[in-house]
Amino acid sequence: MREDAFGMRRAGSRQPPVSGMFNSRGADAAPLAAVRKPVDVKLKFLPEDFLVEELPSVSLDANGDYAFYRLRKRLLTTHQAIDSLARRWKVPPRRIDYGGLKDRHAVTVQYVTLLNGPRRNQSQQGVEVEYLGQVLHPYRSDDFEANRFEIVV
Predict the structure, then answer these.
(1) Residue of 40, 61, 97, 103 marked active site
(2) Whole-angstrom Cα distance, residue 99 to residue 36?
(3) I need a surface site. Which of 56, 108, 130, 149 has the fewest CB within 10 A?
(4) Which residue has the higher pLDDT, 120 or 103?
(5) pTM for the model
């Protein structure tokens, strides 16, 4: 059995990996923490410090029965935002379709559909909805390619 450059046993070895501090000066060198002063970093201090946006992959179709919206929310869970919209539009929350759940402690942009939904923008506390057009089917998790993140440190 041979070890790789990090002292890890290879080729199916049942022994646990070698532990220790590894840095550019080798496995036996002093840990970097002993050489460098620690830096305090605070992530997500404000909701605007963490931005998440879905990247949708749907095509608008004027003949579609589903209204397609861009939903921008701040300090709300996806479910809270959907419930708020449902109350405003006077529909059961289950009628509003979305692709995924987004962080509460952030500013997020995601997309939703509503069968025969209103063709107008909507704004209320913590939630902004922009009408983008019509689509043929409800928006689901396979209708977006990825999430884009912006994090302020």
Answers:
(1) 103
(2) 44
(3) 149
(4) 120
(5) 0.71
